[in-house]
Give the backbone structure.
Amino acid sequence: MATCEVCGNNYGMTFEVHAQGAVHVFDCFSCAIHRMAPICEHCRVQIIGQGVEAEGHWYCGAHCARAEGKVGIIDKV
């Protein structure tokens, strides 16, 4: 059994996420999201969906990117 790095639960069905050269261990998707999801640099919400990257900064959508002065950003529909 492995231990979730977020909640500390010692669980037989943990899973690993390999990202940027590191290995993370979680017991559920909510713990993985809590640790791994980027934060919108405007409204501070965790970005669970696609998000928008502009000039090295992450936003939850085009509205927040534009609110931070980024131009030419549109949401894909």
